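anyone seen this seq b4? input:
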Amino acid sequence: MKIKERLKKFYDEYADFYDELEEPNEYLASETHFYIPFLKGKILDLGCGNGRHLKVIKRMGFYAVGLDISHKMLIASKIKDDLILGDAELLPLRSNSFDMVVCMFNTFGQFSDREKVVKEVRRVLKDNGTFVFTVFYDLNSDEFFLREFNGKKFWIYVHSFSLEEIYGLFEDWNIKVEFLDKDFVGVVATF
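predicted toks r here
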């Protein structure tokens, strides 16, 4: 089974108790504080899951749309409008339609073809658009991890990035990398 299909299956199974398993933690707090100063205009939350960041962004008064590959995660969302079922490698969105794209909690590291995702993000961003995302850094991993909750086992794919890889994916963008923790970075890319 391909990574994308495994992740979709994982999140479909995980959706019913996502909030219990992913309780607020230091990563969630640090990434929320990281992206808030960059919020602007019309925003796409790429890989929005159950909408925990989408909710924060909308509460701040921004128009935001969430997109996720898992139908069940969208159903579990606390946000009931402006949700789209879709694939980040082929976004079902018009070109030049967003001022900003956010992609939080290593979701970008779960995409199997990150180059395609970067091209799609650039396509949907307006001129001077901004892509803000957080990823694991330099854990030397590109593998599936087994997690267990309430007697049920789940496999989750995790890729951690080197700085060279991040800069290579965004070589024609203006980029800023900020360490949020020893193994977690926030990236702001503007073109």
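The longest strand covers residues 125-136. Residues 161 and 185 are 9 Å apart (CA to CA). kinda curious what u guys think
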